[in-house]
Amino acid sequence: MAKIKSSCIETRNWRGIKQTAGRQAVSTIARKRKIFGRAKMCGVIIIILFMAGGIAYSVHFFRSNDNQIILAGTSAPVRRINFQSNGELDHHWFEQNIAWPQDATIMEVDIFAIKQMLEKKGQINSAVVSRKFPDELHIEVIEREPVLRARVRRNKKKIEEVYIARDGTVYFHESYKITKNKHLPYLDGVRFKQNGDHIFSLSGIEIISQLLDLAKLNYPNIFKSWEVVSCKEFDELNGLSDEFIKVRSSIVREIIFAPFDFDRQLAQLARVIKYSKSNDIYNIKRIDLSVKDEVAVQLYRDIGPRKFRN
Amino acid sequence: MVGEIIDEGRSLNIIGMGQSTAMGVRKGEIIDFRAASDCTHAAIIAAEKNAGAIIEGVFLAQTGRHLQGFSNKGSVMVSSPDNLVRQSDVQSVIENAKRKELPPRRVYIHHVQCGFQLDGRSIKDPHQMEGDELNVTYWHIEGDERKVSDHIHVINGFGLKVEDMIISSIASGCMVTSEEEKQNGVLVLDIGCSTTDYLLYNNGHIVRTGVISVGGDHLTNDLSLGLRVNKQQAEKLKLEFGKAIIDNEDKDDKVWLFGDLTIGDRAISRLAIYQILKARIDELFGIVKKELVEFLNPEELAAGVILTGGVSRLPKIADAASLRLGVSTRVGDNPSWVRNDLRKPEYSTVLGLLYYGLTAQNKEDQGLKKSGIFSKVANIFNL
Question: What is this model's ipTM?
């Protein structure tokens, strides 16, 4: 190829022509492209400004919060324990029963160990232990609610009362007041399996607690008269083929429930009791509600002094 | 056509192409600025989309009857006492050759060096050679300032800058000729849409360039008038049935205008098509012969004539040129490194422009690339 030179020596070269675009030279397409290009450039500038602003703010934030972070890092000895419970347990109980290093700083306290200690207590369903800087320990526990009680021999020594929660957990109480559970029926017909202080959970209590809850809610007077709930013939607990829940109350010696359709059975029971009271019938021995659409009522032969006490 | 210079300016990738129907341009000159801007910008947008890249600069091909060339010789006496040619001698002889005043409203487009002579001997590089008188001949190409600036401003209207300008014939000529042909003497005829650009090489140098205002459009127009068909139909007849000479084998045949027997469809004699095309082709080569009569002999043009441009696809055009010009003629091929679909003769000029862009890039060592932190940031975001 021959040598081609576009020299700039002379002024009268095409390169001397001013490269500018008049308004007429800019087509619609070019104008749109130009606007789009400028918008793109503005977008990029805005993004860069935002990024720069973000970096500047972050630097400023970390510099101004340096001291605060250092202070939070040095923990003080625990001065206050904030104990909260939805039941009977209180701060005093915590101080008496849970061992924790009193002179430790907030960071030295093993909050997981405290949580484990709390949750080992049968009365406590769950516990949350947290640090509140600089010197406070925050403990929140949720207690189990008993639906039945029983009496068992603790460690082959004295007989003590145990409580059965809705989930079947059986536990020795920590600090129930005597009056709190005086209307709670006793559970009968169950053999508890024990390992030292620990009693194994029972299965099937959910069904019984449904019956008790319904009775307590809708027929509180009838529920108050219930003294013993027997599960001798309840399949879930004992694996027997007959499925009956038997209740002994202060006015009827034996009330027999089938383990389903408690609403109907309780309504029938209420009607029978109401009828018997209104007709001065006080010698009821047994009410069998387990037969569908029928209620079998058995009376004592003699109408004697055991009207309400069976 | 969009090219990407890679490997630090050593090679070029053709990455896209955009086409648009030419409007507002006649015989290489802008007659409707808005229409020319619209179609050029549409082609640039299409090329950018096709390439998936933003075009950074433009190499612009220039043609038109307003372009004229002339030869000018510079001469200096060797200044050193030992008669050895120094750099300063070469510099001053070049300046001497280029220092020719142009008439008002005319600007230089190119200065093409045609070789040095030292005491009458043709030499390639005179540095450190002994002699008394150093001469250099330049072929200067100049054009009308307003017409050139119109072309530049169309590109500027898109927000782009013309990085360099090159004569169409030089661009296409460097694609279809070999170094050996240039050395032996070759004439390149780039027959385009509305003009025919010619370029004459001898002894490896460009010795003559020029533009003739006859092109493919004239053939179409002649057919349209001669056969009483519209321009689209004439273009179709030219492309499908046209020949540059009267072919005795099928001259008695007839061809159908549409070929689907619809209203307006009619049979047209092939002979009529051939006669119309031959007349115009003869006229074109006649003008070429008249302009280059002193070069059209086997001694000056040992490598013959090479045809390129869209019209060179017309069957038998090389035979017609050979008969009229009296020297062997062939249709040129674009280089084999170009993709097959871009090897058509109508792409010779744009390929030549890209080739020129690559060599300019090498020469300037990426001088075209914008520098500075803002350009780098803009490049990251493809702005």
Answer: 0.77
